[in-house]
Amino acid sequence: MTEPALLLADEPTGNLDSRTSIEIMALFQELNDQGITVLVVTHEPDVARYARRVVEMRDGHIVRDARDSRPGPRN
């Protein structure tokens, strides 16, 4: 797969230090800028701030579905 349409990432920063987490999220932003949809599952609010859309679930139910046209840090 050299040109995927979708990248699934389950807790991609779970065991990483802060600096590496920022680098991973920057890489995901670059891929998204190239047209790849990036779906990230996380429990970390600071990681979720990078997203254009956040769907929050609790007890198996969607409790929030928010879109942000200006997500977190971008290079």
User: CATH class, please?
Assistant: Alpha Beta
Q: In percent, how much strand structure appears in the residues?
A: 25-35%
- Any guess at the CATH architecture? 3-Layer(aba) Sandwich
- Biggest sheet strand order reads 1-2
Named CATH topology: Rossmann fold
Distance between the termini: 26 Å
Describe this structure in words.
By secondary structure, the chain is of the alpha+beta class. The protein is globular and about 35 Å long. The strands form two sheets. A two-stranded parallel sheet has the order 1-2. The model has no long low-confidence stretch (mean pLDDT 91). The longest helix has 16 residues. The protein contains two helices and four strands; from the N terminus they run E-H-E-H-E-E. The protein has a single domain, classed as P-loop containing nucleotide triphosphate hydrolases (Rossmann fold), CATH 3.40.50. 27% of the residues lie in helices and 31% in strands.
Brief overview:
This protein has 75 residues and is α+β, with helices and mostly antiparallel strands. The chain has 2 helices and 4 strands.
Please specify the SSE layout and strand pairing.
Layout: E1 6-10, H1 18-33, E2 37-41, H2 45-48, E3 53-58, E4 61-67
Parallel strand pairs: 1-2
Antiparallel strand pairs: 3-4
Name the features.
75 residues; Rossmann fold; 27% helix
